[in-house]
Amino acid sequence: MAMFWKEMAGGLLLTLSLALLVRGAEGQGNGRDKKQVSGGATIYLGQDRDFWTPLIHTTVNLSDIRSIKSTFQLRTFDPEGAIFYGDTKDGLDWFVLSLKDGIPLMQISKGDVHVSVSGGPKLNDGKWHKLEVSNQGKFVVLEVDGSNGLVVGMQSEQTEEVLTGKLRLALGGILIDKEAMIVQFEPHLDGCVREGNWLNLSVPWDTEAEELWPCHQNVRPGSFFPGTGFAVFNTSVFPIEADRVVMAEFWGDFSKMDGTILSIRAPGQELMFALVANNTTEEVTLTFGEQRISVKDTLKKLAITFQADSLRVLQDEDESKTTSLSVGSESRPGYLNMWREGRLAVGGLLGDGEDDAGSQFLTGCLEKLQVQEKDLDLDLAVKHVSVSSHSCPA
């Protein structure tokens, strides 16, 4: 074993991590108030939890490791998020494989060596990609769909030690402080893994989830709201200058939506604004105070422009279908503040508490949402519940 670990210096830790990624979505109790997950099936990584907390994790003896190659398939439209994590020495030596800008990002910390490398093709195209990680001497090689995608070499001046003890593995999160990352990234990944072949080891993974969410067989780009949660933002995060026009644009099949699409509340004020789809009345209703605009739900795009003294609603880019509301700041003193200090919710109606309690949750798929002509990434919300941020069932 000593010679084995010496040959695997630097690269083995990453390879081992791939060994035990995902084994399926069937769980059973283990007598420790945790569910155990067996291998072989597909697992959805974007399930609700604290985003840095792994979805599943396990611990194995290093002496049980025999294989040095692992393969799995990944499918996502999400450009950024954690795939898996592994460490030895209770987190002193660690690695993370993630995506950033859709490209594989590998980070490794081992002794006095700290490495961060990204490269290879973009993987967030919604297609299944086969990834293989293997050790070749002092190099760790990530192959994507049969071609080299990323090669990492590591060498230390320190005397190589024989590794003993435990290896901790985690899927969809990390087990150390996020500040230890060499490159910071958003951890939540709306994606799936399947068909893993992980170092020929068969051990159970633990999960704190009562049940694991399944992956949809076919997906398309968008944000899916199952009717049980929403995403909340502080409006101060949007780069909006004083008195400047603000535009919010929505794409999707509104006839297949039901519930609150967007709501905004200014500090210390009643609900300022709500956009609600109703399958029963077959209408989409915009509410500002006592004023309302209703349109048929057959539209595919809705653009709402917030001006200093009015709201302008444009349907399907057809100027003949434009409606305006007068909402001057004199009659609504909190109107301008809602885009400076307020809260914005996508997929639910904001409550009046600071805990962002909501209701009337949206059911349906928003194909795209932009604020100030920039895509709104729901993963950046201060609260994010039961939303698939980058994919909808096809």
Automatic annotation (TrEMBL):
Gene3D superfamilies: 2.60.120.200. Keywords: Disulfide bond, Glycoprotein, Lipid-binding, Repeat, Secreted, Signal, Steroid-binding. It is found in: Secreted. Residues 1-27 form the signal peptide. It comes from the Eukaryota. GO terms for cellular component: extracellular region. Pfam families: Laminin_G_1 (PF00054). Residues 42-215 form the Laminin G domain. GO terms for molecular function: androgen binding; steroid binding. Its main location: secreted. Functions as an androgen transport protein, but may also be involved in receptor mediated processes. Each dimer binds one molecule of steroid. Specific for 5-alpha-dihydrotestosterone, testosterone, and 17-beta-estradiol. Regulates the plasma metabolic clearance rate of steroid hormones by controlling their plasma concentration. Homodimer. This is Sex hormone-binding globulin.
